[in-house]
Design a protein that fits this description.
Elements: H1 8-17, H2 24-37, H3 41-46, E1 52-53, E2 56-59, E3 70-73, H4 76-86, H5 104-117, H6 126-137, H7 142-149, H8 154-160, H9 165-173
Antiparallel strand pairs: 1-2, 2-3
Helix pairs in contact: 2-4, 2-6, 6-7, 7-8
Length: 174
Amino acid sequence: MRAPIKRDAEFEAVLAHTSSMERPAMYRLMMLLSIRLGLRPMELAGLDTSWFRANELRIPLGHSKRKSGRSLPISSEIIEALTAHMSDKTGRVFRNARGEVFDAAGISMAMRRLYKRAGVEGSCYSGRRTLATSMVDRDINIAVVSKVLGHSSIATTQKYVGVSDNMMRRALFA
């Protein structure tokens, strides 16, 4: 089953709900990286503070599905969320309550739990699919969307893109 594409209001509800979680800063950062950068669970699980360099996130070889690493620009919102979560700590970013690093399955479960508690249907890939759809809806070239998502094939990226109401309106009435 494909991850559902979310509206902005649904993401806002999930982000607002992070404040009621046991570790709000961690969950907020996790959601922002999913929603704003479309990171995969395996990328979130391996995330290390050393990957953040100024205004860029550099995912090294071996921590993504790509045969090479990839770099993504990051916003001040993400930098602030990282600082709120990590303070002055370094190393792996996402750890469970016992201090053990999350694996991809743990990230997926944590995100599913967060969506459910916020009363929103969603999964760890909802941010990724919504980001892709939103970018295409804003007329961002599919090759750029593919690069952001870390796909080597535009055909793979097209599988992530859904159809928004705005796309339908433009198709019918433009």
